[in-house]
Amino acid sequence: MTGLPLARRALAEFLGTGLLVAVVVGSGIMAAELSRDDGIRLLANSLATAGGLGVLILLFGPVSGAHLNPVVSLAAWALGRRDGTGLALGEVLVYVPVQLAGGLGGTVLAHLMFARPALQTAAHDRSAGHLLLGELVATAGLVALVFALSRQGRAHLAPAAVGAYIGAAYWFTSSTSFANPAVTLARSRTDTFAGIAPGSVPGFVAAQFAGAVLGCLLVAALYPRAARSAAPETPKRTVGA
């Protein structure tokens, strides 16, 4: 694990998650203002998110690992217990709350940049079963990718690979790939293109945690040991959208 103070790493997770949500919500607002075509809106939203996520991993990865996602932090703890890498449970208990708070702060920031009320209640229902399956698939793939790269000793590819995956998952999953409980909660407080109704949040979060478990199982089956050349802190240099 990195030797940086936990407070500094927590600040990086707060800022990184907040900026990620600001990218998602802000680009959704801009896209909706510029076009009435849902396909163009989704394209703009996905491109901005994929690019922004890669930049955020580069910016915050050296400090906190740029998890920006509670399920990634929990997976780092679960997969790192055997060899003593990844996060300690106490660190997870710090990371997760600051990620959740940062996500809500990102919604506020996006709204203020577009002269909207700081917080809203989303009305976009996303409770259908096929959407939950999409979230499970999206999150399983994200977790599998992040920790496969880590265990291959190729975590330096995460900015491009994770950004590309999330950008693609916007299109190949029915849910448009939230894949992140902090982002999901934050998006419930924006009544814009990126919003999700509060009543749909529990189902999405449950699907994300189920997907994270599946992703961890895939990593354990395919890559039971970290690459010998990987640096000790490599499992922490991971991210999620």
Describe the protein's architecture and organization.
It is a single chain. By secondary structure, this protein is an all-alpha fold. Helix content is 66%, strand content 0%. The chain has 8 helices and no strands. It has helices at 6-34, 38-64, 70-80, 89-113, 129-152, 158-172, 181-187, 201-222. α1 (6-34) runs antiparallel to α2 and α4 packs parallel to α7. Residues 229-238 have low confidence and may be disordered.
| Residues in helix, % | 55-70%
N to C succession of SSEs: HHHHHHHH
Taken as a percent bin, the fraction of beta residues is under 5%
Number of helices: 8
What gyration radius follows from the Cα positions, in whole Å? 17 Å
| Biggest β-sheet strands, sense, barrel | none
Oligomer: single chain
| Coarse structural class | mainly alpha
What gross morphology would you assign? globular
Instruction: Count the E strands.
Output: 0
Which regions are unreliable across 5 or more consecutive residues at pLDDT < 50? 229-238
Gap between N and C termini = 22 Å
Mean pLDDT: 93
